[in-house]
């Protein structure tokens, strides 16, 4: 889950950040002691989970939570507070979870785990577009891949419809001009690592599985125009299919017959 942490106490902020960094369910997108700076960041960066201190100067945690929910309705919010009164009623109305200070790492870990379960239930569909340019959308938002080869690797896995993509096959498709040596294997491993990182950032890491020497996707986890097309009986052949990848031409040819 792409996570925002806001606490005007620097020590508390660092403690929360350390726990979140150790969680397999969390990608820490930003940490802030200034709630106004956090709000500015949230407006430009998709957030799935927010850990917010309640009492902060200028902009309190409850108001910040309202603002975040106004642009990301599915965002899970965990409030952290040392005061049971008078904040408790407002917290109960707006928070998914709340934690009272002093808290332990176990308290935070439990809240994160429950937040993960809630986020999965609330998450909107994942859509993969293959006709035309290959793109992936999570909750209606396009995923930005920081590495072009990691995006292409995911496209290749989608093309294989859940079948295993061996490392040597992926290298042959993604780096056709490179010799099969340790250097190109490192490029493959880097692409897998960055793909896992990107999918985790958007909270959809469960669509892609990577093992030693191969990887694959889970088709049941997302919607895909290509998969819908091949289920149809009276099909009109598409004009374009993942046109940015030369290896996709073979699949396009098969769809035309």
Explained architecture:
Helices cover 44% and strands 19% of the residues. The protein has 257 residues and is of the alpha/beta class. The protein has two domains: 121 residues, Rossmann fold, CATH 3.40.50; 130 residues, Arc Repressor Mutant, subunit A, CATH 1.10.10. The strands form three sheets. Strands 2-1-3-4-5 form a five-stranded parallel sheet, with helices on both faces. Strands 8-7-6-12 form a four-stranded mixed sheet. The chain is elongated, with a radius of gyration of 22 Å. The model has no long low-confidence stretch (mean pLDDT 87).
Instruction: Summarize model confidence as the mean pLDDT.
Output: 87
Instruction: Measure the end-to-end span.
Output: 42 Å
Shape: elongated
CATH topology descriptor of the largest domain: Arc Repressor Mutant, subunit A
Spatial strand arrangement across the major sheet? 2-1-3-4-5
Q: If helices are DSSP runs of H or I spanning 4 or more residues, what is the number of helices? A: 10
SSE order: EHEHEHEHEHEEEHEHHEEEHH
Total E-strand runs:
12
Q: Superfamily at the CATH H level of the largest domain?
A: Winged helix-like DNA-binding domain superfamily/Winged helix DNA-binding domain
Helix fraction, binned, reads 40-55%
Largest sheet: 5 strands, parallel
